[in-house]
Every structure is written in C-alpha cells, then in structure tokens.
From TrEMBL:
It is found in: Membrane. This is Vitamin K epoxide reductase family. It comes from Bifidobacterium adolescentis L2-32. It is a multi-pass membrane protein. GO terms for cellular component: membrane. Residues 39-185 form the Vitamin K epoxide reductase domain. The chain crosses the membrane at residues 41-62, 107-126, 133-151, 157-181, 202-224. The keyword Oxidoreductase applies. Its main location: membrane. The keyword RNA-binding does not apply.
Length: 232
C-alpha cells in the first residue's frame, strides 16, 4: 500500500471515529441529566406521594368501617354541605365493585394499589434494574390510578355535589405520583427509547411549568365550582 493510500485509510478511520463520537455526544446531550432527573429524586417524590395516598386510603377505609357499624353517623371530616365525607361515602360511586352480593369500598382497592406503588418507588430508589415491560406496566398502572381518581373527583363535583377532604388529598397525591412516575419512566428508565422530544421536555425542565399549571388548574376548577361553599 502506498503512502497516499495509507494516509487516506487513516483519514477515513478518523472520520468514522469523529462521527461516532459526535453521535455519542449527541445521545448524552439529549438525555436529561442532573440531580432532578436521577433515580433518587424522581422515585423519592413518587414514594412520598404514594405514601400519602396509602395513608389516606387507610383513613378512608377506617371511616367506611365506622359508617358500616354506625349507620347515619357523621364523620370528623363532615365540615358542611359541600365538604362532607359521609355524603360521598354513602353514594354508589364509593363502592362501584360488587361481587357475590357484596360491595367493596374503593378505599380498599386504594390500599392495595398504593402499596404496590410504594414498593415500586422503593425499588427505584434502590436503583435495581427492572425489565422494560415492568416499567411500562408500572406507568400504565399509574395512568389507570390517575384516571380513576379523576373520575371519582368529577363525580363528587358534578354529580354528588359534595367533596370528601380526604378524597381531594388522595386526588392530588395521585397526581403528583403520576408526575414523578412519568418523569422517572423517561429520565431513568429511558422509555420510550429514542424519543428525543420527551427527553428534551424533561431536560429543559418544561415539566416543572406544566406540573404547576396542572395543579393550579385543578385548584381553579374546584374553587370555581364550589369555592363560596367551601368556606361557608
């Protein structure tokens, strides 16, 4: 091989290396980095939100048992006509699952579901690698929990015309839980793979603005619907 051919081969190899390095740098650049996008922060927020939701589910379950033992008894969270746990608990929406002639309160399922989310958050904090199908099922489960919570909230606002304070806490904690879970799914689990748009969304911290607007929008809807009565 002549000196010219040798030099050409070396230049070609250098070009390939440069392209590979550029692609690698681009991949690293698009991935969200920093403490806010790591497993510790995202799963810690999820753990706190899930723990609150689990605690509230236990409280609601206890209230349900109290009402079953003493029908017609008012609960401690019965503040007025709008903020009334017992009104919500006595509606059919509070027990939509029926089997063998028995009704199962929603709060019982909340205990089961939130226990799973707490466990998943602990696994995430431990930085244990999980299969992609597991991460996907976790996110879908979080989405289902959020949708169910919002359905119950809309029923309380527009059908039952009464709100349970504990149910509101559960709704907001489920919302934060889903926000943190979605963040972890993209930033930590890298799903869906190769989706530069979602990576950029979190890398530029757009999610912070969206999350704040999301929470404020929920508060505004509640205040517009029942604001004057909440403080009556």
């Amino acid at each position: 091989m002549s000196d010219f051919e040798s030099q050409a081969a070396m230049d070609a190899a250098d070009d390939e290396t440069s392209v590979g390095t550029a692609v690698a740098m681009d991949d690293d650049y698009t991935k969200p980095r920093g403490w806010r996008h790591g497993a510790t922060w995202t799963y810690l927020i999820m753990l706190l939100a899930s723990a609150v939701a689990l605690l509230v589910s236990f409280i609601l379950s206890a209230d349900t048992l109290k009402m079953a033992r003493n029908p017609g008894q008012k609960l401690n969270c019965d503040v007025n006509a709008v903020l009334s746990c017992s009104t919500v608990a006595e509606s059919w929406q509070a027990e939509i699952v029926k089997f063998a002639g028995l009704s199962f309160p929603n709060a019982f399922f909340g205990i089961a579901a939130e226990s799973v989310f707490v466990t998943i958050a602990v696994i995430g904090l431990s930085k244990v690698a999980v299969p992609r199908w597991f991460a996907l099922c976790t996110w879908l489960g979080g989405l289902a929990a959020l949708a169910y919570s919002y359905w119950l909230t809309t029923q309380s606002l527009f059908v039952i015309n009464a709100m349970c304070p504990w149910c509101l806490v559960l709704m907001f904690s489920t919302t934060v839980q889903f926000m943190a879970l979605s963040h972890a799914t993209v930033a930590v689990q890298d799903m869906p793979s190769g989706h530069a748009g979602l990576r950029k969304y979190y890398r530029l911290n757009f999610d912070l603005m969206v999350d704040v607007v999301w929470i404020v929008a929920l508060i505004v809807v509640i205040l517009v619907k029942d604001g004057p009565m909440l403080f009556a």
